[in-house]
UniProtKB/TrEMBL annotation:
It comes from Eoetvoesiella caeni. InterPro entries: LysR-type_TF, LysR_HTH_N, LysR_subst-bd, WH-like_DNA-bd_sf, WH_DNA-bd_sf. This is LysR family transcriptional regulator. Residues 6-63 form the HTH lysR-type domain. CDD domains: PBP2_DntR_NahR_LinR_like (cd08459). Belongs to the LysR transcriptional regulatory family. It comes from the Bacteria.
């Protein structure tokens, strides 16, 4: 059987004729001339070696072969209409979609509460999953769709196949417990260098900015502890004389809920930009566009002037 000349119009003619039983009505419904309808019907007759429709006083009645074909052809057209060429919009109010976001645990502390609050109103059935991936894995995950968005400082995601949108700019501050000997007074460079520091080396990249900043200025710290994430910092600060340099947004969130305080650095802090990143494959995808809009709204609300 040669299907080379079979097209969607021919299938639509068949499907409509099954329902209307009239060539003229079929042509009017599809916007085709009567000869065009007849041509499509003859094409199917040749292909199937069956008359398919027989003219009667009640109209064009389908043969048993046509009746057998009708369900499959309707299914094919339905898939084309609802899945291949669908213009249906993403419905956040009823969607049960789960989105995967790549971010550091700082992002989880600072940003997730605001995002969940916003989703509870805009998309109550939508859920969020977070992951932390190294840069080489993140690129592939964004391309494949395993990760929907990367939120944070990701300087490697600047290739032609990636898009980005600025969410906010941040700086660094020093954090310690409230009764620390360095708390409550201006932090000097000598005191900063002499103190025992926690350094975080996580999958996120913002900490690299401060490390490079110190290296370029040949500034030294006494690094007492290196950890891979930020979540344990409050407990470590409360139980020791250690101090830590973290993004300002993180410090604000942490000191708000515990006996910790933050100090301005003894040097001008470097600034860095936090962005959301996505792959070009999903740039025009309606669901991805909705998610990016929600994320941007959540960050905007989070950093409105108080």
């Amino acid at each position: 059987m040669n299907l080379d000349n079979l097209d969607i119009t021919t299938l639509r003619v068949f499907d409509t004729l099954i329902r209307t039983k009239h060539v003229t009505n079929t042509g009017m419904e599809l916007g085709l001339s009567q000869p065009s309808v007849s041509f499509a019907l003859n094409k199917l007759r040749t292909l199937t070696n069956d008359t398919l429709f027989v003219r009667t006083s009640q109209g064009m009645e389908p043969t048993p072969r046509a009746m057998k074909m009708s369900e499959s052809i309707r299914l094919i057209l339905n898939v084309m209409e609802t899945e291949v060429f669908s213009q249906n919009t993403f419905d956040p109010l009823h969607s049960e979609r789960s989105f995967t976001l790549c971010m550091s645990d700082i992002g989880e502390i600072v940003f997730l509460p605001q995002l969940i609050k916003l989703l509870d109103r805009a998309a109550p059935q939508v859920s969020i999953r977070t992951v932390s991936l190294p840069p080489n894995e993140l690129e592939n995950a964004l391309m494949s769709g395993d990760v929907d968005l990367a939120l944070g400082y990701y300087p490697d995601l600047t290739k032609a196949n990636f898009f980005q949108q600025l969410l906010f700019s941040d700086t660094f501050v020093c954090m310690m417990r409230k009764d620390h000997k360095l708390a409550g007074r201006k932090l000097t460079m000598d005191a900063f260098e002499a103190a025992s520091h926690i350094v975080v080396r996580a999958e996120g990249r913002s900490e690299e900015i401060f490390e490079r900043f110190l290296e370029q200025r040949k500034l030294q710290r006494r690094v007492k502890l290196v950890i891979p994430h930020f979540m344990s910092i409050p407990h470590l600060l409360l139980g020791t004389d250690l101090i830590v340099t973290v993004p300002h947004s993180c410090a604000v969130s942490v000191v708000r809920s515990g006996p910790l305080t933050m100090q301005t650095l003894p040097m001008k802090s470097p600034k860095f930009e936090l962005k959301q990143h996505w792959h070009a494959r999903y740039h025009r995808d309606e669901t991805s566009r909705w998610l990016r809009k929600i994320v941007h709204e959540a960050f905007s609300a989070l950093f409105l002037p108080q």
